[in-house]
Design goal:
The chain has 309 residues and is of the alpha+beta class. It has 10 helices and 13 strands. The strands form 4 sheets. It has a 5-stranded mixed beta sheet. α2 crosses α3 and α4 runs antiparallel to α6.
Amino acid sequence: MDYNNYMARANKGQHKIPRTYLQSFTDSQGKLWIGDKDFKLYSRKPDEILTEHDYFTIKFPTGGGTLLIETKYLNDIEGAYATIFRDKISKKELVSNEEKAKLSIFVASMMARQPNRRESLKKFFKDGEEQITHLISLPDHIKKRAGSMILHDKTAPTISADEFLRAGKDISSLHSSLIPNAVESSAPIIFNMQWVFMVRPNEANPFITSDNPCIMVNPVAENKFGRGTMGASPGLRQNDVELTLPLSPDITLMIGWQSKTNCQYINIPLELVDEVNRRTRRHAKTIIGSDKTMIERIVQRTKAYYQSK
């Protein structure tokens, strides 16, 4: 067995968002313009941003770890996307069903890998640990009474409090280990949805991207229940859900169930370009684009907004 593929190299920088994806947003000098959560503006090459030591490394309890998620899984997905983008999407040529399947896997991987997914896991385990700590502190007679009131399916799989707490001790390894199953379950759904490659007009602002570029929202539910509420939580099988992923300053992929066309390139109005960019900014901690002036304007406007609160 070749252990070089299984043992992690110490402090290896890994890309949270693929370099091959970010490459499409570079300016004429091969640089990206970045605005971060501290309202700083700077430029970097694609391989110099959104990296973290051993971000996808699954660590072993006995020491060491495996790089398989990065080297044997995500790298192949990124390579397939880069080829399809270069040969088809950048030229606005129709993609085949096989290429759509590969792109579905890429989109699913972007959803699963991006930092907000890891942040959600951290919050889930933090909230769970607080609840467990509270329950443990209760008197025995209250625990007994509470236990008798809880109804659950005894045939369903369960996890003990200790097992739950252990799982939450290494969120990075847990998140990485969950990526393949997340992609496997969501990619077929994404493939069966209707796709539109939205093309911006020349006079419109470029599309931007971010550290969390693959965004799922249900605008109908948000209008009905309010943004951020439980009722507005999006799901891939919801009729009105929309999934957006900017692919370049000129093209954004929109995926949903309501479109009458599939995998077509459609010129969209200025206001829709601005709406896509607003959606990207809304979910971002770091915004990224090819236009320095535009990114600078967004940073200054965001800074002024928070300073006024």
